[in-house]
Design brief:
Two copies of one chain form a homodimer. The first copy, chain A, is mainly alpha-helical and 335 residues long. Chain A is built from 16 helices and two strands. Helix content of chain A is 74%, strand content 1%. In chain A, strands 1-2 form a two-stranded antiparallel sheet. In chain A, α1 runs antiparallel to α16 and α3 crosses α6. The longest helix of chain A has 27 residues. The relative contact order of chain A is 0.11. Chains A and B meet through α5, α6 and α7 of A and α5, α6 and α7 of B.
């Protein structure tokens, strides 16, 4: 019951955030429709399925809000909001191949429905098509920003893959991965509207910093939710990360507080992906009572505060308020 | 023995083709070395492995030969020769995930060694990095050419994936797939040097046509070799295509010559990927004695002739001779 009330509140807040750009978000959906109506049927089917499966259009909203905040009046905002979501979608599709996951946002993943073959290809198609969409308008700088973000995201995934199954994950590596995997695309989404007009170019760095902080905060909360949320809210099993051999900040912070034997047993969970050496309930209990979640929360809040600090230099108005509210709501998921 | 003599002859011929650009091909290898020495270790390991596993550097050689033929003296030829090979390598890595293959050029495939996870990511990294390498020099037109080729290649793979396991493949669809999957990158490799200098821009279309014809000819011969070559020459099992449910031109041409019962049994091979309904030897025998391979050969020769016709408009000299020789040698593999 409590969760439902919370969801409703969140839904209301999200509408509030998106309010100033609701009309543009509809245009983004139209853009997808036009784009995929022309595409190969298999691309259309898979991409439409993944795009329709409950994504909150957070990254497009960031592009649109910043564009409006910077007084942009052309059509690039909608195009690049769509492009950013297409890149995000391609990442999700390829990630699910990687994890062998079969649930994403409570739905069957693309690779479960269409197989690895199709999923790899549709992901490839989406990545490549986004480059085309940048080239059509000759927006080389936007393209450079997105290519760099994509490259760093991929490197983040490769790093994450390398340490999978290992318990001895350094905190610095974890932060580096979180930044690359998640925060880079947030940063690109926030900064690319600065490139639409010469007069706003000077804001690029600050917008990048803002997006990066929001992104890290978002990722920290996500990693925490893996231990606190109910399955229905997550749309995937609790402790999915541990099951996939992924050690996140709560576990990194927990380890030094454990006796060697428990540490070793937890290590077996991470390397085997099963809760044989130590039960699910026991792990959850340890994480929830140890105080590490408060520490993660505190850090997420710090990053949100950094984002707010960056935003002080942005043009005042309802769009800036919405950006700050967005950052707050994302943080609030874990509070 | 015969095969060995043939290989030796081919090796000599290939040296002859590459002769005019041997020094530049070395530079391409240096480029890879520099590029991957800076990359994430896992990217370096996988990419170096796949790049080193016996590729003939055909596509880079095309870029270099055309560049020299057009009198280009800068450094872009080496960079884009490397870029084209990186795109090709990314395709190979992702293709192997798709097919579940475990052999490529006689070596274990990347996904067998490192798993689907790493393979997807390293492929993604290569694709994205090639875009970066274009952006570094601001070569938007080159990028457009390569993005279009990549998009069409991916669409070709998606189409191929859709008809997998089906025996009733239309010849038109087969040709469309061959053109997209293989010929588009050959075409881009041949045409992109025309974009290096304003004076050679007018040759773009003819170079595209040349590359496309060479590419289709190459693919036709490849599909034929799947029925004629020994395992050692192919570096993969004979009739690998059929085993993977892929119907190619020899089978398409064979079907109308079969009685309904044999046709149905062959259909079971394609849908099951096993030779239970009809033995391997029987299928090979049918293909080899039916005359369909002569027909495929004839068509491959037609495409090589078209390429030669296009080449008449190219600047005369040893590079043009080498390009024509390359087309001949590729054809000769199947003679």
């Amino acid at each position: 019951m409590r969760a439902n009330v919370k969801s409703l509140n969140q839904a209301r807040q999200i509408r509030q955030v998106f309010g100033p750009v609701m009309d543009r978000l509809d245009q983004v959906e139209n853009f997808f429709e036009r784009e995929f109506s022309r595409a190969e049927p298999m691309v259309r089917e898979v991409a439409t399925y993944v795009l329709a499966s409950g994504g909150k259009r957070l990254r497009p909203a960031l592009v649109l809000l910043v564009s409006r905040m910077l007084g942009y009046h052309g059509e690039r905002d909608v195009r690049y909001a769509a492009v950013v979501e297409m890149i995000h979608t391609a990442t999700l599709i390829h990630d699910d191949i990687i994890d062998g996951s079969d649930l994403r946002r409570g739905h069957a993943t693309a690779n479960t429905r269409w197989g690895n073959q199709t999923s790899v290809l549709v992901g490839d198609w989406l990545y490549t098509r986004t480059m085309d969409l940048c080239l059509e308008l000759g927006d080389v700088d936007v393209m450079r920003l997105l290519t760099t973000a994509t490259l760093r995201m991929t490197e983040g995934e490769i790093l994450a893959d390398r340490i999978r199954g290992r318990i001895d994950v350094d905190e610095g590596i974890y932060m580096d991965i979180s930044q690359r995997k998640t925060a880079e695309l947030f940063a690109a989404a926030c900064a690319l509207p600065a490139l639409f007009q010469p007069a706003t170019l000077h804001l690029t760095e600050r917008l990048l910093a803002f997006g990066r902080s929001v992104g890290v905060s978002f990722q920290l909360v996500d990693d925490m939710l893996d231990f606190t949320a109910a399955r229905a809210d997550l749309g995937k099993p609790v402790m999915a990360d541990l099951r996939e051999g992924r050690v996140t900040l709560p576990i990194i912070l927990l380890l030094p507080r454990l006796d060697p034997r428990t540490r070793r047993r937890l290590g077996e969970v991470v390397s085997s992906g099963t809760f044989e050496a130590i039960s699910e309930t026991e792990v959850l209990e340890m994480v929830r009572t140890s105080g590490v979640l408060d520490e993660v929360r505190r850090r997420a809040r710090d990053f949100a505060a950094r984002a707010a600090h960056e935003a002080e230099s942005f043009p005042k108005g309802s769009e800036r308020d919405s950006l700050l509210l967005a950052s707050e709501i994302l943080l609030d998921r874990g509070m």
